[in-house]
Amino acid sequence: MNIKTILICALFFPMVWDVITTALGIVGVLGTNIIAWGIAVVVAITIASVNLCTKGILKLARSGTNDLTLFLPVILVLCILFDFTTSLNGNARYLILSNVAAGKDMGIMEVLQKAETGEQFFYIILVTIITTASPAIVGWLTDIDWLD
């Protein structure tokens, strides 16, 4: 087993957690009804899929064959930013408030301010960075040519 395989296997779990926390973050804003959950799951899987295709999107953008290829990196950046903020929201609500629905009227900064220690705040930020990056890293490591 080589290092690539080990990293892909190790980052699979943060990638799954990324999808879960993205959905939790969306539900934390939209509410916990069935429509919100449906939207959250679809968007979370879509965002993770785009993030997983980072290498292919950047390769396609470098080819510059048409306007769409130039627009794809913008979509990628928006997806990564959305993923980070919703995952941060999901992690904070789940780990600090212990309930995704709690604090629905609170913004993410208000939730983060409820962290009991600086370490808890730091760990939530660190976990969010790792989970947000994990789909892109897995996609990069797989060496799949997404354009074929």
From TrEMBL:
It comes from the Bacteria. Keywords: Membrane, Transmembrane, Transmembrane helix. The keyword Transmembrane applies. The chain crosses the membrane at residues 35-58, 70-88, 121-142. This is Uncharacterized protein. The lineage of its organism: Bacteria, Bacillati, Cyanobacteriota, Cyanophyceae, Oscillatoriophycideae.
